[in-house]
Amino acid sequence: MEKDYLLERMGAALEELNKEQKQCVTLFYLEKKSYQEIAETTHLSLMQVKSHIQNGKRNLRLLMEKKENNAN
């Protein structure tokens, strides 16, 4: 039950990321693509892919924490 709730919150937070962050995070974590595969698919540089994944992961955490704090 807790896992479903967490996944639901994560999905909602993922929708709030900017386009590039959402795409890179989804490809990396959900589709298990490598940085190189993501770069080829998105036509971004490797450094941009790494940055979007890192920033997207941080923003996901912040969005989920914000939603949790607002729920309490």
Main beta-sheet annotation? none
Helix content: over 70%
- Topology, number of strands: 0
Specify the overall morphology. elongated
Strand content: under 5%
Average of pLDDT: 93
Query: Segments where pLDDT lies below 50 for 5+ residues?
Result: none
Structural class designation = mainly alpha
Task: Tell me the count of domains.
Answer: 1
The end-to-end distance, rounded to whole angstroms, is: 18 Å
Count of helix runs = 4
CATH superfamily placement: Winged helix-like DNA-binding domain superfamily/Winged helix DNA-binding domain
Broad CATH class: Mainly Alpha
> What is the CATH topology classification name?
Arc Repressor Mutant, subunit A
CATH architecture: Orthogonal Bundle
- What's the SSE pattern? HHHH
Task: Tell me briefly what this model is.
This protein is mostly helical and 72 residues long. The protein is 85% helix and 0% strand. The chain has one domain (2-71): Winged helix-like DNA-binding domain superfamily/Winged helix DNA-binding domain (Arc Repressor Mutant, subunit A, Orthogonal Bundle), CATH 1.10.10.10.
